[in-house]
Model the fold of this input.
Amino acid sequence: MKADRLVLDTNVWISALLAPTGTARLLVNEVIERGIDVLFTEGTFNELVTRLDRPKFAKYRHPEAWNLFLSELIEVAQWHDDTLTAAGISRDSDDDKFLALAVIGQADAIISGDSDLLDLVTYEGIPILTPAECLRRMHDPQN
Done:
């Protein structure tokens, strides 16, 4: 699979932070190693920051490490304006911003663990994949 530009849903970033040996972290590491563009808007980034600040993550929170992670993410991300909307596409309207970002940023795929997005399968020709499926496709020369 061609993977030059990806949109990673908030749940993928959080999984990567919470499970250092999990599939999401393996994907994030691979994305960084390959120099794949990670697409963000102010809205998608703010969702990540506010989700990480939830009390349920307090026991996992390592402020210095998380702040470093977010700072580095700001530097490597490819930023786009929140100008396009994809209202009413996903069952969860909070997920529509990831669909719009994928179109604006001409993403090769959207990566998510959220069934509201995964059930769509594709959007505007852009595949919606789990982290495991993305890794498999990245390593399969036939894709």
Notes: The first strand starts at residue 5 and ends at 8. Helices lie at 10-18, 23-34, 42-52, 63-76, 96-104, 115-118, 131-139. The chain has a mean pLDDT of 90.
